[in-house]
Design goal:
The chain has helices spanning 17-20, 32-38, 56-59, 80-92, 144-155, 169-174, 182-185, 213-222, 256-267, 296-310, 323-333, 362-373, 437-452, 474-479, 483-493, and strands at residues 47-49, 73-76, 97-100, 117-120, 127-130, 135-139, 157-158, 192-198, 204-207, 229-236, 238-239, 244-251, 275-282, 285-292, 315-321, 345-356, 385-394, 416-427. The protein is of the alpha+beta class. Among the domains are: 17-120, Uridine Diphospho-n-acetylenolpyruvylglucosamine Reductase, domain 3, CATH 3.30.465; 127-239, Uridine Diphospho-n-acetylenolpyruvylglucosamine Reductase, domain 3; 244-321, Vanillyl-alcohol Oxidase, Chain A, domain 3 (3-Layer(aba) Sandwich). The longest helix has 16 residues, at 437-452. The two termini are 31 Å apart.
Length: 508
Amino acid sequence: MYTFFKTLAATAFFTTLAYIRYTSLANTPATSFIECLQTIQGNRSSYLSTPSSPTYDKDRVLFNKAFDHRPGAIFYPASENDAAAAVLCAASHHVSVVPRSGGHSFEGYSGGSQGTLVIDLTLFQHFSIDHDTGIVTIGAGHRLGSVYTKLWTAGEYLVPAGTCPGVGIGGHALGGGVGMLGRKYGMLSDNVVGLNMISAEGEVWHISDTSRSDLFWALRGAGGGSFGLVTEFKIQAYKAPPKVTVMRVRFPWSEHRAVMDSFGKWSAKISANDISAMLYIGQNKTVFLGTFLGSQDKAKAAVAPLLSLTGAPQQIEFREGTWFQAASTWAALDGTKIDNPIGNFSLSLRLRSLLYRNPLSENELEIISRHLSNGPSDIENPKHRLISSVTMETWGGKIDDPKSPSAFDNHRGVLYSVQYGVERVAPRSWHSDSICTTCAEWSDRFSHELHAAYSSGDVLEAYQNYMEHGIPNGLQAYYGENLARLVEIKRAVDPDNLFTFPQAIPLG
């Protein structure tokens, strides 16, 4: 989940197909690899984008505009057969494959690098639900907003996932998938009951707890592009409760440190799983945001212990309605519509995360408060708006009681996540918009101090869906004691390391 009160920018997709279908690639440099991709003729909707394609500069754009990736090719398959054929082309020419669902990797890893093949799953938009079991089948090209919309239309169903409607379901589900329903239903990855994956050999594998069970374990928590190309998810959906209450409580900025302390202490004592919440501190705002699966009166009772610690807020709002109205409210806070999650702004960011099993210490509270009170200035381009922030999000509840073991198990028992960093927002543009130098320096100082003060264990623990390249011992922070088993599975299913990126599961 990303910080609030900003506008999302989504990866460009649905380009003008007529310009870049296989038959229109006469100006593409004739290389054996490109020629191999051009011969894939299975589904007429599949298409290829190369550096000579008119829309290549749009096709390569990611959510985080701080990166300027220029992969060797971007292939948009419309079928698993075409996706498998593209994987075989890459394997036969020793070209690394990078899967892309929504393009929301904090470090831009789904953008590939020079010479790599990005396989974008935008065209995988199939959707169906089994009303007897509540299991929904979802193509990996979906964004969360479209998933919520289709589930609601199909019979007022929901799945536990994030609030930002532009996020692709692929990386989100494979890396955990925390959201405003987690305490009630668990992580999104906990509710994945089956997957389709294109292997490094170009085979379509159907994966579940009874079929390739080791890989089923690995993909749910560590599967974000390391093991293969996941094209489809089967996820347990639930009937939405009749009433859902959205909560927004604003506190004076001057009290942000005390409110952070109170939020941590309250999070450690929450007993009800019907409530999930976050605390946003940024832009001179201190705002509690929550979702309660029940009536307004019960929501007020659930939040009362927090308010007894913080004292009277500046503003308080409880809005009772349906689950879909609640999801639409969170989408609106990101400046987008739930059924059309395309942002109107260019966003470059440097965001990081840490996971805490105990409330923040006084030292950590002081570090956070000091950095937020002295945020960076964009000297290079003062017209751009900077947002420095910290978001604390409750975990616990059903997250700690999954239905089956998974690679996410090392994070069971976490009290809350802390996401922190800086974003630069500008009018929409397709060109690279690198993070300002002063922003990067501020973020590095903030991170260095917070890592040094980390009070929740002997080693850092962080959330793999908020991956950052500079974190010390990153793979250990993300996967803990599960890393050795993940390496073994990687060796077994992708021994030539076809699917790789800078912080992928390694071969050793």
